Amino acid sequence: MPRIFSGIQPSGELHIGNYLGAVKNWVELQHEFESIICVVDYHAITGTYEPADLRRRTMEMGISLLAAGIDPAKAVLFVQSRVPEHTELAWIFNTITPVGELERQTQYKEKAGRLESVPAGLLNYPVLQAADILIYKADTVPVGEDQLQHLELSRDTARRWNAKFVEGYFPEPQAKLTQTRRIMGLDGQAKMSKSLGNTIGLLEPPAAVWEKLRPAMTDPARVRKTDPGNPDVCNIYQLHKAFSTPGTVDHVAVQCRSAGWGCIDCKKVLHASMEQELAPIRERAAALQAEPNKVRELLDDGAQRARRIASGTMSEVRQAMGLD
Ligand code: AMP
Ligand code: TRP
User: Has this prediction a pTM greater than 0.90?
Assistant: First the structure.
């Protein structure tokens, strides 16, 4: 059976961009594949942070993932730093990864460009990501489009290690993208991202969601309500495709092109569709927030299951490399 691994940073609340681009896919795939889902706190510390915030956000991310539908009876869900073998394998991969390849990573260039002093961990971030995936010999990695370059590096790493030590040992992991591989932010200008402040949080109450939808960017050419719109260039229409039923999506397109509805009418219908999907997630999250010890137990149990696989890989890797 194919094995899935994916990770998410506890660097902020889960928003509908990572929900639609990645997490929702994980929830569906856990029924078909052996799935391992990780809250990657060691990746999150490559930026500046407060320890107390990280602790809280790691817990919140665990709760959000469970609320979104990750089922610990089906998938292994855990926090990365509880399985220290990830960093052990990352060190080994560091010794076979050319610095030039790391310097060419787009995400690295963007982040490093803004810093006066660049921590080595930021450069080596994708090496740890390769270790996350390969330590479970996962062959399928469901992620958003922004992770494709990192996955290519994971494949290069597998190939390089295999060529040096054991032919065919690590599989070459392939990305699995969703239909909604890139959700744009409410500004319609860039991808939805916590750092750009253009997000809708997965657990935000309905009134707060509406406050964000109401002024959100639509088709820029549609100035007056009587102007016909073009749904294909409208970010709100993209969100309809993600949240509304196919019948509603068709109806929205007709109403937009004929100027039957104004953008506010269209957003009201979107808000109702979002509520359908998000209300049960908010309810489950509230129940989990009331039981932090239960959440901790679930995550600890996930870490134990993950560690059994990871330590098996590490003994084989050590043996192959003369480190036994
Ligand atoms: P991050 O929150 O950056 O750790 O990303 C977690 C997952 O969500 C990754 O698989 C990303 O590719 C995906 N993701 C993040 N933002 C978006 C977005 N705006 N649209 C689609 N996928 C996203
Ligand atoms: N770099 C990924 C992100 O920012 C998070 C991540 C870490 C990841 N390790 C991973 C994703 C392994 C997939 C597989 O979204």
Answer: yes
